[in-house]
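Title: Prediction job returns without error message
Component: structure pipeline
Severity: low
Priority: P3
Assignee: unassigned

Description:
Job completed but the reporter wants confirmation the result is attached to the right record. Sequence as submitted:
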Amino acid sequence: MDEELEKEDDFDDAEFERVPAYMLTTIDNPFHPLYQRKDWLGFNEAHGYEPDRYLAKVYDGSVYLTEAQDQWMANEAVKEICRINPLYTYVVVDD
């Protein structure tokens, strides 16, 4: 029984190595937040949007996770924001 618990506690980081980077954007922003960052930020500023700050309020990272695990957690936060957003203004964009 103890061996089974140890196996469950062992974290295999390999499952996180293929994690894409999800980004939060608004449905009306025509620019890609990664590839057109300057234009994307300008559009958000002009319209009073702050998706990066919103995401940081939901998940601000962790020094205790690997980079891949941290990205996975950030992705979950992006999906949660989109799920709970009643006006459907936020959408997920991946790299």
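Comment from assignee: result matches the submitted record. Confidence is low (pLDDT under 50) at residues 4-10.
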